[in-house]
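Hello K.,

You asked for the raw outputs rather than the summary table, so here they are, unedited. I folded two proteins back to back in the same session to keep the settings identical. This is the first:
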Amino acid sequence: MQQTPLPTDSFRLPARAARKERYIYIAVPWSPTGGGMFKVAEYLIRAQAGKTPGHAAELRPLDTYGPGSAWTSLIALAKAMWMIVRGRFEGGLAGVHVNVAERLSLFRKSMIVITCSLLRVPVVIHLHAQMKNFYRSLPGPAQAVVRWIFSLASTVIVIGSAPRRFVLEELCVDPRKVEIVINGVPGPAQAPVRGIAADGIRRVLFVGRLTELKGVLELLEALAQAKIDRNAIEVTLAGNNQVERFRQKAKDLGIDSFVKFPGWCNQEQIDELMSKSDVLVLPSHDEVLPLVVLEALAYGVAVVCTPVGELPMVLSDGENARFVPVGDADKLAAVLEDVLGDDELLLRLGRNGRTLYEQQFSLERFFTSVARVHQRHFGIAGHLPAAETVLADEALQ
């Protein structure tokens, strides 16, 4: 099933394309249900400033899921494939950046990759999930198909060292075609001033799907046993999925007086919660590099999380975050007591986190990293004036 990927220069536009505006499709479920994949794509696309100059390409969303169910998403997939065909023959399409997770996401995006390969459109695969366990659960022939799909890409973007090892060792992708690009997120120009709120309340925030895999059960159990002033704390668990189950659990544990479940929140609401929160807690059992942690760093919010995925590679325990073992409610309770009871520690974690964000996780740096990949493989990239400053600064180093 192995197939040699097409070199970038094998893609030749019709002569009339020189007069057309160039664009790059970002293939992703274009709705908040797309999770981290959607947010990353939305950040890149919305970051473009005004009219795209002639030397750059416009980044455009290519919806691969649509507004319906998994089955009706096949209609959206067919439309996406048709848009690639049209873009190829009209001459404006420079390349396709495909955001991939696992399960049905992998199936849908595989069809996009195959379409691009048949039309000789260069394609970048951006892997957003660990995918290791899912891949290993597949039968041998299906694994071979996955390896073939990844071999069709001009390059494969991964978020860190562990996904890179998986892509190299198990998907057998050529090392020269694997690139690490660390996510970035938008943030305020300056982090909000931190300190004890006027009402004396410390605010703790969780953002994510309300499931056991995200560590919600351990968080509630930790809050129930932590030695904290329940009249001086407010905990918000923002997210959908098993809301009623965990709301009842909080009631059973006797912590419902200070634990709130607002349900799913849009980005504007999350930003508002971040600006007012003192601590972000994410006791997940499995992650790659969760965007919500990067958002907390941007807002100068102290982070308490499990050392899963790439988090221990980018964060330092006690310096810009506090780590707790996966599934350990007792340890989580103790860490929350420490952080919430030590104003100096709380502020230091927030300040150091903001500094780390500015150094590594700003949207400008992320946009620049993706633009470099696009320039190499598509021959053109998106435009962000702020990113040009980052490029110039790095060129002088």
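The second followed immediately with the same parameters:
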Amino acid sequence: MSSARSIHVQGIVQGVGFRPFVYRLARAHSLSGWVLNGEQGVQIFIEGSSQACESFARDLKLQAPPAARIVGLSVEPAEPQGLLDFTIRSSTAGLTPTTRVSPDLPVCDACLAELCDPS
């Protein structure tokens, strides 16, 4: 039986690779749905098995990108929509955004090594 959750994540979750992380995590848990940057944080809709939804919600906080800072996470039951895949949707824009923005981050050592590798 299909289960669904509506998830709202607040904190420093935009500009830190959070949506691609959510996409990979949803795919790893065989979930369908979507993720987008909203005016008050990241909004996520997932559907799949109840166990997969619960595991996803747990892993969302435990495995978040290093530069992300989750300060609020709400998970609410939702009605399944029969979605077949997981997508990253376009961001929404409002009049009064309240999302925290991360500071510029330095390039990590692995990225520097890749940049300097001629192969």
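The chain is about 25% helix and 30% strand.

Happy to rerun anything if the numbers look odd on your end.

Regards,
P.
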